[in-house]
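Task card 7
Instruction: Convert sequence to structure tokens.
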Amino acid sequence: MKRLFVPLVLALTILGAAGAHAATLRRATFAGGCFWCMQPPFDALKGVSSTRVGYTGGDKANPTYEEVSAGGTGHAESIEVLYDPTVVTYEKLLEVFWKNIDPLARNAQFCDFGTQYRSAIFVHDDEQRTLAEASKKALAPRFRLPIVTEIVKANEFWPAEDYHQSYYKKSSFRYKLYRAGCGRDHRLKELWGESPH
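Output:
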């Protein structure tokens, strides 16, 4: 009985610690055009536990990539970020978000056009809304044109199909070809005066 008791206590302690860590994680959701391109900068950020790409902002349940990319679902290609606020702040996530989008493009990002490629910050609570609005206001004087990125309440997030998850790792050559062909990095450098995160 004693031999069983020690491993059982140890296992319960480990599970308890993992559960406590999971409880500290918070969620952030952003749309910045092609979701393949939004995953690398957040994956590289210390304090980000995981990311997944998907669709949100519309009304269609269980949308497919084909439905969203055709337009008409109301959804935008998006990224959901799980992060540890004791390691990385929401303000830092916002900074990474802004520097990886064109905030002046309405219903488009780089070579992709349509509401499904709009830029948006989907806020999960009042604190996120306050911080998002403050960051948008702080950036406004930087540009001659208005920032058109939406700040809206988060709703249901529908994960994209498996082949879209971490596409930049699974199909790195195609990903790099698309990114270069879309002119994303060139435009980001024009906007922010530096290489993207």
